[in-house]
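tl;dr need the bound structure. longer version: we got a ligand (zinc ion) that a collaborator sent over and nobodys looked at where it sits. i said id run it. heres the input, straight from their email, havent touched it
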Amino acid sequence: MDLRVIGCHGGETPKHRTSAFVLDDRIAIDAGSLTSGMEMKAQCGLDAVLVSHAHLDHVRDLATIADNRLQNGCEPLIVAGTKVTLGILKKHFFNNLLWPDFSRLPSERKPSIRYLEIKPEVPVKIAGYDVSAVRVSHTIDCCGFTIRGRDGTLAYSGDTGPTDRLWEVLNETESLKALLMEVSFPNGESRLARASGHHTPETLARDMDKLERRRELPTLLYHIKPSFQAVVERECARLRGVNLTVCALGDQFIL
Ligand SMILES: [Zn+2]
Ligand SMILES: [Zn+2]
């Protein structure tokens, strides 16, 4: 599996991009920076986007990728998420007010995007992968994913604070190659992290005790808030008994 980091931060500056990852050039996980971070040809090459939840930093570039793909006559892009997430996108985003309804443009027969509902823990085939969503603990409906391809499984946490079910599912996933895991705020901002449904290095370490393979499983950290990048990285570097790597823009992992 070829995992590319398009965006891996919990905010944006010219040096930070919001969450978006691409697996084997085919399937994207969240859409925070799919157009700001990818060339047109690569945008058009995607088959599907898995959307963890409806917060803007994870869906914003659905607006521009839908428009770009329409201009280039690309195949419909599958936008996969839970019923709640897709409902928010339909009602508040692609609602012909904030942005056109690209699920009907340029035509209903061949639209720019096509919604695909995923039910938590009911595996579904998307772009050749077995995808399963797992509910996590955020301020709105949010899911992590396991994505199984021929060579193994990649897991993605989505935005979450301390949670249980995700770790149970990961403990049962034998072919797991790596976990993309959120951490957002430094330990000194634990109140903010709790209120916004995110991790600090401290809460992450405690939560990862629930993961049996925590010592060896490559755990790729993302969603650090730009203003706290250095301190969160320092605090993560002090954690022991886990195999952590902080994602950077442009990183490529062969799993
Ligand atoms: Zn969020
Ligand atoms: Zn987020």
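gonna send this back to them w/ a short note. The two ends are 5 Å apart (CA to CA).
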